[in-house]
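Blinded run. Sample ID left blank on purpose so nobody reads anything into the name before looking at the predicted structure. Input follows.
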Amino acid sequence: MNLDVETWQYFRTERLFPKLENGKANQQILESGNDCIYIGAKKDDNGVMCRCAKDESLMTKGNCIVFICNGQGSVGFANYMDVDFIGTTDIVVGYNENLNEWNGNFIATIYSQERPKYSFGRKWKTHLKDTVVKLPVKRNEDGSFFKDCTFEYSEEGYVPDWLFMETYIKTLKHKPITTNNNANATPELKVQTWGEYKLGSIFFVKGGYYNKKPEHLVEGKIPFLAATEKNNGVTEYYSEEDISSWDKVGDSDNSLDGKIFPAPAIAVTVNGSCCEAFYQKIPYTCSHDVTSIRPKDGHSITPAEGLFIATIIRQEKYRWSYGRKPHDLKKFAEIVIKLPSTQDGTPDWKYMNDYVTAMPYGDRLV
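Blinded prediction complete.
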């Protein structure tokens, strides 16, 4: 299906969503629990910040568009939410009886294109009702625009083509993700029993090689990682021919030595989007803005363990900003993190693996 945007028409938010409601909570008043999700001013993970106890006085009904109206870096994004939830006061939700998961995702994507207008102090909540977006419109059998004499959705009488939006999303390549894991079966994290480890004490620490974006000779399949927080750190793909054309490392006889990092490993950004961490399951190459770590005990990190450790490392992100970067390998190796421990004081790899695979969708990791 083609998107003929030129034929789309404008709709004002207050007409498109006759019911707009504010979120009711903040994270400080949430009770611990696992039977509800908390939606915050966050563009990733569909806005989910954490799980919490259900509080009927704070609940917001699902099947709605979530407009992120505050929050530096996320203001201006929109998500579709299918289930009931507790939402922050930094969001506004919109309802329309024609909304479903398919056209909802279509509309949320359109609204997210408005983001550049709402940042640097110009918050969306003040202007949301008057925000205007272009959407496909309903047509008559002869191809002419259908006009609604009640002018319910637009001043000109146009009606959104809900069916087209739904059908378009359904034609995209997708497969619903399912899980057999129960959210309530995830074990408790007893952080107070964890051990403290310097990264350099349990991991081989190796800095990235190339200090700028190389040119392609031949398109390849080897991931190139740089200082980004997206796409698992990958910005390019290179071939061995590309990589072998780069300057040799030290006295190495093999032109690929020191340039392709073995996997599995965890790649950590040490500049730009600092202290982002990504599990890498295949060999990769990277810029000097990335540091690679692998266990010294020879343990081969599983995807679940990699996600666990990467999440822990990201918690250190607040320490490395505003000019204080862990670019120096010695400084990086001194970073201390807490991990589950065995009785002999070594990292408890099995616990980390079992914890993540027990989480919802953890059974889908490969």
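Unblinding after everyone has recorded impressions. The chain is about 20% helix and 20% strand.
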